[in-house]
Structures are given as C-alpha cells and as structure tokens.
Predict the 3D structure of the following.
Amino acid sequence: MNQRHRNKRRDAWRYLLALPRSLWYNLKLFPAKQAWKMPLLLSHRTTVVSLDGKVVLNTEKLRIGMIKVGFATYQGTNFRHDRTRINLQGELHAEGDCTLGAGSSLEVGPEAKLTLGDGFHLGPKSLLICHHAMHFGHRNRISWNCTLMDTDQHALVDLQGNRTNPDRPITTGDNVWIGCESIITKGVQLADNTTVAAGARLAGRYEEPCTVLAGNPATVVRRGVMRQYPSN
C-alpha cells in the first residue's frame, strides 16, 4: 500500500470518528433540514469551549463536511496532541467551503460577527480572535502559526477614563494568501489578490490589489503579481 492510500484510509477513519459528535452539534446549530446534511464536521480532537453562538450558512450548496474543523495538517502538526479550539459565542457566517486546521483556535465574542468566504482556510496552529467584526473574501488561505485579532483584548484609557483603543474590523478581498507566522492586527484591510509574506506584521489599510506585503510593519515590496494555486 502506497502513502497516498494510507493517507486516504487515515482520513476516512478520522471522519468516521467525528460523525457522532458532529451530528449532535449540527442538530444544535442548524434547522433540521440543514442539520441532516451534516454541513459541519468537527474532529474528535477538537475542544469546544462554547458553541452557543449562531452559524449562518449563506449558500445553497449544502453538503456533508462543508465546514471542516480540526482535520487539515502540515509537516509540523501532531494530530494526536495538537487540539483544535472553538469558542463561538457570536455569529459565524459561512459563504461556502471552509476549513480550520488541526491545532488552530477560533474565538468569536458575544457581540461579534465573523464572515468566511467560500474557500476559506485557517492553517494549523493559527489563532483567529474576533471580538468585533471580520470579513474574509472568497478563496482566502491563511498558513500555519498566524495570528489575526480585531481587538487588543484589553482597554487603554486616557486620564479622563475614555477608552483609546477600541476594537476595529478586519476586512480582506478575494484570493488573499497570508504566509506563515504573520500577524494581522485590528483595522487591517487587504485588497483582492494580496500576498502576505511569511513573518509579516500588518497594521492599517492596504488598498492596492495584486501586491506582495512583507516586513514589520508590512509594506508593498512587489506589484502586479498574485499567488497561483494548483487546479486540483
């Protein structure tokens, strides 16, 4: 048996282990007509802090495993030990297929709204914290060990007691690639076909499409290019 067949058998076993728990959460989150199609597959290696929020499926193409949580890995992932973490208290809107990698962490606060475009991928061991609003376009792919936060998770006040660091939304266009170990801070806006180099730290608005951003703080280092993905 070659490696490809072994990987298929391994994945099939992981999906089988996910079915009982996934069925329960589908029935909890969705109307019965949607729930029986099992759009959510939740790995048995996922820690659910809360799923008391709301998941809205903004697509007519419902199918089993449209949203996969805790399965995708890369060379540095240890599936047996890297647990995925979900804390959903606000709203999550999915516009198509979405994946959250093994060992990643997703947190949506009680008053927050997170929108994931079709083809969204959050890489293994990446952290996404949404306490206000995030909107990702279609075909956004985030590599491993990235951090995305629309909040500082603490308040800074002036001498009169007024908060000086409010939460601010993060918005991205379509076909955005974010390289490994990048940091995306509150208020960031990315245009279509933006490529973020590994280790970049982004703050502010990057409105020019088809660019490569790199550095700390990130600046445009190349123009007129976009990432190409394999057709398969």
